[in-house]
Design goal:
By secondary structure, the chain is mostly helical. The chain has one domain: Methane Monooxygenase Hydroxylase, Chain G, domain 1. It contains 8 helices and no strands. It is elongated and about 65 Å long. The protein starts with a helix and ends in a 7-residue tail after the last helix. The relative contact order is 0.14.
C-alpha cells in the first residue's frame, strides 16, 4: 500500500512540476507581449506567437499524465480532486497564454501608429498585476494555501477597475478625433484580454478552494 501511495505522490509531483513550468512560460509570454506593445517590436510579437506551441504541448502532456493517473491509480477523495483540479488549471493557463498571444498579434497593426502613452502605461500596470496574480495563484495551489488563493482572487477587482477606466479613456479619445479610433480599438481589445486573463487566474484560485475544501469560493 505504501508503495502505491508513494508512486501516486511521485506522479502528482511530476505533474505539478510541469504545471509550474507551463505557468512560468505563460507569464513570460505576457511580459514579452507587453514589452512588444510598448516598444512596437514586431519581431518580439512574432516570438510570442511562436512560443504558444510549447505551452500547448505542455497542456497536452499534463492532460495525458493526469488521465493516466486516474486510470491506473483510481484516486479517491482529495487525491481525485487534485487530479481534476490539475486538468482544469492546465486549461486555465493555456487560455491565459492565448490572451498574451492575441495581445502580441495586435502589435504589427499598431506599430506604425501614434502611441497612446497613458493607455500603454495602464496596460503595463494591468499586465504586471495579472502576472503577479498568476504567480501567487500557482503558489497557493502547490502549497494548498487557501488564504493566499482567496486574497489573489480578490485582487481581480483591481484589474476590472483598470479595464473600466481604460474603456472610458479610449471612448473619450475616439470622440475627440476619428483618427484615434483604430489604435483605441486595439488597445480596448488588449485591455479586455488582460481582464479575461485575470479571470483565468481566478479560476485557478477557485480550483485551490475546491482542492482544499471541496467547494468553490462563495463569491464566485
Amino acid at each position: 500500500m505504501e508503495h502505491i501511495v508513494s508512486r501516486f505522490d511521485k506522479d502528482v509531483k511530476r505533474i505539478e512540476k510541469l504545471l509550474l513550468k507551463m505557468a512560468g512560460l505563460a507569464v513570460a509570454q505576457l511580459e514579452m507581449a507587453t514589452k512588444a506593445l510598448e516598444t512596437r517590436d514586431t519581431a518580439l510579437s512574432e516570438k510570442v506567437a511562436a512560443g504558444d506551441k510549447e505551452i500547448n504541448a505542455l497542456e497536452a502532456r499534463i492532460d495525458e499524465l493526469a488521465v493516466r493517473l486516474i486510470a491506473l491509480r483510481q484516486p479517491m477523495a482529495e487525491d481525485l480532486r487534485h487530479v481534476v483540479s490539475t486538468l482544469k488549471i492546465s486549461t486555465n493557463i493555456e487560455r491565459f497564454a492565448d490572451y498574451a498571444k492575441t495581445m502580441a498579434l495586435r502589435v504589427p497593426a499598431m506599430a506604425s501608429g501614434k502611441p497612446v502613452d497613458s493607455a500603454t502605461k495602464t496596460i503595463r500596470r494591468m499586465s504586471n498585476a495579472v502576472a503577479s496574480m498568476m504567480t501567487d495563484a500557482m503558489r497557493s495551489f502547490i502549497e494548498r494555501d487557501l488564504v493566499l488563493a482567496e486574497t489573489t482572487h480578490e485582487r481581480d477587482l483591481n484589474i476590472d477597475q483598470m479595464n473600466s477606466a481604460l474603456f472610458r479613456e479610449m471612448l473619450t479619445y475616439m470622440m475627440e478625433n476619428p483618427r484615434n479610433i483604430e489604435a483605441s480599438t486595439h488597445l480596448l481589445f488588449i485591455s479586455k484580454n488582460l481582464e479575461r486573463a485575470g479571470d483565468q487566474v481566478c479560476n485557478i484560485t477557485e480550483q485551490v478552494s475546491f482542492l482544499v475544501t471541496g467547494e468553490i469560493f462563495e463569491n464566485s
